[in-house]
Amino acid sequence: MKPEDKILGIIGGMGSIASSDFLKELMEESPAQNDQEYIEVLLHNNSKIPDRTEAILHNGESPVIELKRSANILENAGADYILFECITAHHFAEEVIEELKTANFLNMVDIAVDRIVEEFPDLNNIGILATTGAVSSGLWQKSLKKHNLNSVLMDKKIHEEEFMKSIYDEKGIKNNYITDRNKDKMLKCVNNLKQKGAKAVIAGCTEVPLILKQKDIDIPLIDPPASMIEKIIELFYF
């Protein structure tokens, strides 16, 4: 099955491991039967993009200039669709979208929430596994609220000591430490959300699906990169 004659542009590097994993998963989920039937993809692994959480919470260097540079590179190279392979970066999406001339922006947050509504119409009380930056910006809470869905947040201590350290520590997931230690930290976060009433959880940071799978927990796990891949397959093949 040949895809639509369009080009997908991915702004990566946030982090690089998650970006390469996303591209691998996209190719594995493709219905292509030969080399010529895969989606044409441009990945700009922009490792110069400053940390998004630092920018949101601590007045760190804004990532907008580098996000715009990546978007311009991809659009000038012919990308018809552009996405961020980082969820927290969506806090800055509007400023980047304003720069786009012809490319369409694919919003991973909204696409994932749309999947919740479609696949789990009776669920409410959605737990959020996301960076402190994403939670502070209200990215997930705002998107869920549009569909009258309640957000459940981790306790502050659990968020900082378990979730953020599992991602950002020297031996964290961003540095490709897919370890039992980091999985245990993530499971503590899930248990905290369940204790607070969550009936499903969103893997609201793109590093989370690298270590946490549906088989690891007993409530639905919403995987935004997987939801985005499903959307891309729909756009390009069906």
UniProtKB/TrEMBL annotation:
Record family assignment: Belongs to the aspartate/glutamate racemases family.
* One Gene Ontology molecular-function label: amino-acid racemase activity
EC code:
5.1.1.-
Top-level taxon of the source organism: Bacteria
Keywords, alphabetical: Isomerase
Q: Does the keyword Thylakoid apply?
A: no
Q: Could you identify this protein by its name?
A: Amino acid racemase
